[in-house]
Description:
Distance between the termini of chain B: 139 Å
Strand content of chain B: 15-25%
Oligomer: heterodimer
Number of strands of chain A: 5
Helix content of chain A: 25-40%
Mean pLDDT of chain B: 85
Mean pLDDT of chain A: 90
Low-confidence stretches of chain B: 464-472, 514-520
Shape of chain A: globular
Largest interface: A-B, 24 and 23 residues
Amino acid sequence: MIEGEAVRILLVEDDLDHAELVLGCLADNHVHNQVYHVVDGEAALDFLLQRGRYSDPKTSPRPHLVLLDLRVPRVDGLEVLRTIKATESIKRIPVVILTTSEAERDLAQAYDLNANSYLVKPVDFENFNNLIRDLDFYWMVWNRQPTS
Amino acid sequence: MPDPAGQRGAEQALKESEARTRAILNAAVDAIITIDERGLIESLNPAAEKLFGFAAAEIVGRNVRMLMPSPYREEHDSYLANYLTTGERKIIGIGREVEGQRKDGTTFPMHLAVSELQLGERRMFTGIARDMTDLRTAISQLQDSEARTRAILDAAVDAILTIDERGRIESLNPATERLFGFRADELIGRNVSILMPPPFCEEHDRYLRNYLTTGDKKIIGIGREVIGLRKDGTTFPMDLAVSEARLGARRKFTGIVRDVSSRKQADAQLQIFADQLQQRNAELTRSNEELERFTYTVSHDLKSPLVTIKGFLGRLQKHVDAGEWALMGADIARINNAAERMRSLLDELLELSRIGRIVNPPEDVSFGELAQEVIELCGGPIRERGMTVEIRPDLPIVRGDRVRLREVLQNLVENSVKFTDGVPNPRLEIGATKQGHQIACYVRDNGIGIEPAYQQKVFGLFEQLSRESTGSGIGLALVKRIIETHGGRIWIESDGAGKGCAVCFTLPGPKAPSSRGETT
Lengths: 148, 520
């Protein structure tokens, strides 16, 4: 991530209210973010692979972080994760699962598929806000990534 | 003229002759007694002494009748007297079974053979007596043994037959008669294979021949399940066990037959139960899996709106604190919607669980009429969409819960209206054909279709393909549940995006065959 360049986040979330909450919290943090929002797994993959309706790279630049909900339509969250980590060109992009599910099964599968992190949306607003803020700070400020 | 040499020769011959006779008499096992006309004992041999317990000296000169108890002694007297006067033979040269009496008074069964001999002018009689005790005992034991065997055979529940080397029936017990419906005289002498239908009768002949020549036991000593043939031509399953018995050089075979009809019925019944049990277990496993999936899905789908509600309450608070009145309305709206979603979710869950329990009694329903009804119910949205509707003619009768079936059609029609949004000439077609005992129905539209990959998923709980569709996505799961409780199947026929979609499902046909000989 180059200083001054906007931090790009791809948010894969089908619940519009939740997306709104995330976007709102991110905006409140004043970290310069450029958030791209898609509502299903197929669109997520199209965006990342710059194909389909996202073939123009200007509309789908490579994000620095993917926030991925597990239960999204068309292509399921875990499938999206599997594909990302199996595709040479995009496997290094950190994928953080952001979901309501605390099920052991989902945790295990996500880690098996090499998710970079797993976060459960808190029901409490204060915690939700803190989570988004910390998430943003950790991955975008503290965390290092290779340039390619 | 005296001939001293000749006389000596004659005397010698006589002595030798006497010695020979004496030797024979002494060696004889049977008692030999001679008596005169009056019945007086003239001589007796050692065997006679032994038999009757008298020394010869004790009874010579006494009447022979003392050696027999009444009534035999009186009979003997009268026979002798009768013969002497009339020449009628009642015992002379004939032999009879009588009783003898010993010195100690005990009696025993005795066979007596009397013959006449002439000595010059004297008429003599020789009696040969034999003790029959052992023979009698042996006969009695044999009779007992036979009686016991017969009792066992008569009482046996199983049919028991004996056959000879050629398979001819020599004997059979009453159970055999009962089992096969033949009388004994109808079976004895016949080949045992008449009691079996082909191919068992040929097999039996073959096994027997084979065994007699090679000693190879295919059924001997083993037993098999075969089919029996009764006199009236009916057949029944039977257990046949054959064993060999040797009587001297002759080979006999004994067959024991048990009717196993009831056992086979019980086995069949058991198999049915086992199959049912397996089926139930499979159902139970499926049920449990469904429950687990359901619980997981529900807990997630209830938590989501909660996150929204709490989240936006937090934002609302921030906006209130910051005095940003304009933004509050939107927050409140989101909170409200989320709460609404939770409520409708809970309502539909209730509905879904009810489907399995409350079912109206099945009735014959005209599919065409039902389709007509549903089209009218959905009249508004159909007209708004500008959709043309075709209900195929001559639709068959289906059988089921009328209310639920209407819900199915309504759900499917509403989906078709939803998914033809943006399609230039939206069309809806409803039809059904008879297939054997079932009716195959369909609701077809020319809308956006469903890709093959998702055609199974759409029936899952809470699956939604498109964000634009309203509702909680429970509709098709409900439809599937209803169809399945009617014993039918449901599936999608669609080539994918933009190529239309047909939802197909099967339902039972009417109970009373309304159409005989109708083509499918």
